[in-house]
What we know:
Layout: E1 7-11, H1 15-23, E2 28-32, H2 47-59, E3 63-68, H3 77-90, E4 94-97, H4 100-109, E5 115-117, H5 126-134, E6 139-141, H6 148-155, E7 159-166, H7 178-183, E8 200-202, E9 219-220, H8 225-230, E10 235-238, H9 245-259, H10 265-274, E11 303-311, E12 314-318, E13 328-333, E14 336-347, E15 350-354, E16 364-369, H11 371-377, E17 384-393, E18 399-402, E19 405-408, E20 414-415, H12 423-431, E21 438-447, E22 449-450, H13 453-471, E23 495-499, E24 505-508, E25 524-529, H14 535-541, E26 550-553, H15 558-565, E27 569-571, H16 580-586, E28 592-594, H17 601-606, E29 612-618, E30 621-625, E31 642-647, E32 652-658, E33 666-670, E34 674-675, E35 683-687, E36 698-699
Parallel strand pairs: 1-2, 1-10, 2-3, 3-4, 4-5, 5-6, 6-7, 7-10, 17-21, 23-24, 23-35, 24-25, 25-26, 26-27, 27-28, 28-29, 29-35, 34-36
Antiparallel strand pairs: 7-9, 8-31, 11-12, 11-16, 12-15, 13-14, 13-16, 14-15, 17-18, 18-19, 20-22, 30-33, 31-32, 32-33
Helix pairs in contact: 1-2, 1-9, 4-16, 5-15, 9-10, 10-11
Amino acid sequence: xxxxxxxxxxxxxxxxxxxxxxxxxxxxxxxxxxxxxxxxxxxxxxxxxxxxxxxxxxxxxxxxxxxxxxxxxxxxxxxxxxxxxxxxxxxxxxxxxxxxxxxxxxxxxxxxxxxxxxxxxxxxxxxxxxxxxxxxxxxxxxxxxxxxxxxxxxxxxxxxxxxxxxxxxxxxxxxxxxxxxxxxxxxxxxxxxxxxxxxxxxxxxxxxxxxxxxxxxxxxxxxxxxxxxxxxxxxxxxxxxxxxxxxxxxxxxxxxxxxxxxxxxxxxxxxxxxxxxxxxxxxxxxxxxxxxxxxxxxxxxxxxxxxxxxxxxxxxxxxxxxxxxxxxxxxxxxxxxxxxxxxxxxxxxxxxxxxxxxxxxxxxxxxxxxxxxxxxxxxxxxxxxxxxxxxxxxxxxxxxxxxxxxxxxxxxxxxxxxxxxxxxxxxxxxxxxxxxxxxxxxxxxxxxxxxxxxxxxxxxxxxxxxxxxxxxxxxxxxxxxxxxxxxxxxxxxxxxxxxxxxxxxxxxxxxxxxxxxxxxxxxxxxxxxxxxxxxxxxxxxxxxxxxxxxxxxxxxxxxxxxxxxxxxxxxxxxxxxxxxxxxxxxxxxxxxxxxxxxxxxxxxxxxxxxxxxxxxxxxxxxxxxxxxxxxxxxxxxxxxxxxxxxxxxxxxxxxxxxxxxxxxxxxxxxxxxxxxxxxxxxxxxxxxxxxxxxxxxxxxxxxxxxxx
Length: 708
């Protein structure tokens, strides 16, 4: 049965992955350049390779979205706007941004540009979607944590893109600072070193042993495609700009089979073998509680193909899978990884393995590299069919017709003296498409004509160049438009505290939102709202907003939420305000706002306008976890408010539990060191959320460091 139409959007970390995606049937790909890409460690693209990919995609009827989705600082603004213009003029179909206010400015300068809001912006509800649409965005890439009911609501407002496959971030989209604060490698600047994939222990019974305590399994929503289509999702997004072309191709073909109503079993096997962390999860959109984390195995776990025994003293895997030379395997024992193995030779009912580790009977064998599956995944299945009419007659100019194009040579064809051109020679020549994804059918007329091979090849190349210009005409370039955002620095004298005790302003952060009441405080009190804010959360809190002087919101959604309830807004650090356009823009909507916690003191000072606050001391929240790190084992839960997460180096990271709506608790992770108090022009913001576990250690953090 043919399913409803939805775009299959594939990652392209480099040229090989891009071609693999397009030739496997992707409707669109997304990629990054050397700068402003949230995957700076990917191969990425320069302008010349980008032009080639654009040509291939457009010939196939596919689109190319270019990610410029990192935080942009003031001294990078000119480069950012110039890069955006260059990419658009090159033919990009959309630009992917994290910064809503930079997007608004781009649309002011260039209304023709198509903008998509990156998942890094944390859009998770109708308020974020409505704001994005008002600012000129055509599409939002929803946060991976967005519930399916909210996905459907957003899709009625704006074109919606949802992740269906690939790696999941531990933290809420755009709100992870762990790599930044422990290693000076900002995820918001494309430099994440993935410390969430390392091993930790937690001081709760049953979780004291070291494990991959924060590492989610890979997402796979193949079984949920019909529900996403029913929610009117426009684009099914595959994560993986850091992954191999075989994975990209396998993922595209799997979802292409699903959307086409075709059997997808073999396609799924190829995908599992290409990359699979944790045997997959359906993630938070559909409320999965167990199996979300891959605590025991980090990295590719592959496909279970059999168990180990010994034959004549050699390790043997009994399996229906037909292994071959080059295949590789991962060995698990009791669910834990114990080593790797490679194919040695075939045997009756299975195959022998070779391994540097000491294997045991009963070990589980997982296929992680299948030579045959990878080759099958990379087989191209897409090409644009064209019909080329060739007329090569003595005494006439050579002529080729295709797609309304009539292309003629400059000189007359000479009569052949001995070996005239044949139909076979002309057909063979025009089957060579110079790398263009075309399937050529030729109709040939020729009689008595001669043409040197070099001239014939030159004619073919010129013809395909002219055809390309017709199939993918160059975009009329936009001219640069100037713009400027003004921020007048103003020295702040007010202080605010996030926690349960305040200074001039208290930002009240309850442990249970179902039991909130305005705390006693002489000054203003704002209610803290986390970055994931669902329709269910709003229903719980709508009648509570009037108890407070305003809301402190950790996402763009707070702008329209505050407007709806006619309450003041304190825009939190979660908006990641990092340049003058963001500061000037948020000042239109918020009474107070906090600057990005990843700015240096000098950068904070330059943006410290009226109402601006900068994190100046106390706890540093580095992750928002919208899931339970204990696997939602509620019946066994000790229900402690605070825990300690300890890494292999003995560093202790406070872990705070809180409840809002829904069945599963949420958690916040704080840095292993508190922030030493810093002075600046901006008013000071202190975070005392994790006070019960403060270690006494301090760091100057980003106050005196420049982030990459």
